[in-house]
Write a structure and sequence with these properties.
With 248 residues, the protein is mainly alpha-helical. It contains nine helices and three strands. Helix 1 runs antiparallel to helix 9 (207-234) and helix 4 (85-99) packs across helix 7 (148-171). The longest helix is centred in the C-terminal third of the chain and has 28 residues, at 207-234. Keywords: Membrane, Transmembrane, Transmembrane helix.
Length: 248
């Protein structure tokens, strides 16, 4: 039996309406046949991409390194590689550097890279800029590739190669150069690759919708919490600490 009909009624109303809204959220009625979660996920991905564009500033910073020599040897071998994997990866990395004007000599799993440090980083940033703007055709044409997956694989070599270059520069105690390479990786290459195919949207363009979704999420969470709380109180269940009488 109900211990408190009023709270029990409110608890049932809140939980039933909560479930009703949940059904609407999962209904494919938003955008182009998306459900509410897919719509909000796509929106926030677009907003995240719109706020991650730092390539123009990095391009300006790369100008400072023009004329500076980069001369490193990196080993692309990884644990778990099958026979021939490292050699193929080394060839792909070498192709990226040679097409962009540097010299790359392959010796097994090792690649000896020499060239203008600033020009190499500028090339990496230009490829990142094209990928960020979803221009995969630029990468395909530049590296003579027709397949989308191979196009992504080739662009990914910038991340693979520069991550190794970064470690080598740190070992050589070239902290400033290493820090710039790290910034190019995290602020240009990674966002360009991860957000490829997503349309960038500035927060100012969707401020109302984004704010509304965030407020709804908070309200919807509280909605469920009060529903459970009132239901339990209506059934006579409580989390209050019981008082224990002390024996004299």
């Amino acid at each position: 039996m109900a211990a408190d009909k009023k709270h029990l009624t409110w608890g049932l109303i809140l939980l039933i309406s909560f479930i009703g809204v949940l059904i609407l959220i999962f209904a494919p009625i938003y955008g182009q046949g998306m459900n509410g979660l897919e719509y909000s996920d796509e929106l926030f991905n677009k907003l995240a991409k719109g706020s991650a564009y730092q390539i123009p500033k990095l391009k300006k910073d790369a100008e400072k390194y023009k004329g500076k020599l980069l001369d490193v040897v990196v080993d692309v071998k990884r644990s778990g590689d099958k026979p021939g994997d490292a050699e193929k990866r080394a060839e792909r990395m070498a192709k990226v550097f040679t097409i962009n004007g540097a010299k790359a000599e392959v010796n097994g799993s090792k690649v000896h890279i020499t060239g203008d440090f600033g020009a190499i980083m500028a090339a990496a940033l230009e490829d990142s800029d094209q990928m960020y703007n979803n221009n995969g055709d630029y990468i395909k044409k530049k590296y003579e590739i027709t397949d989308d997956e191979k196009m992504k694989q080739m662009f990914r070599q910038w991340h693979n190669a520069l991550s190794l270059v970064n470690k080598k520069l740190i070992l050589d105690k070239k902290a400033q150069d290493a820090n710039f390479v790290k910034n190019v990786i995290t602020k240009a290459i990674e966002p360009a690759y991860n957000f490829y195919g997503i349309q960038a949207v500035k927060i100012t363009e969707k401020a109302g919708v984004a704010t509304g979704l965030l407020l709804f999420y908070v309200l919807y969470t509280i909605w469920y919490g009060f529903g459970v709380l009132y239901l339990f109180e209506g059934l006579g269940l409580s989390t209050k600490k019981a008082k224990v009488k002390k024996e004299v």
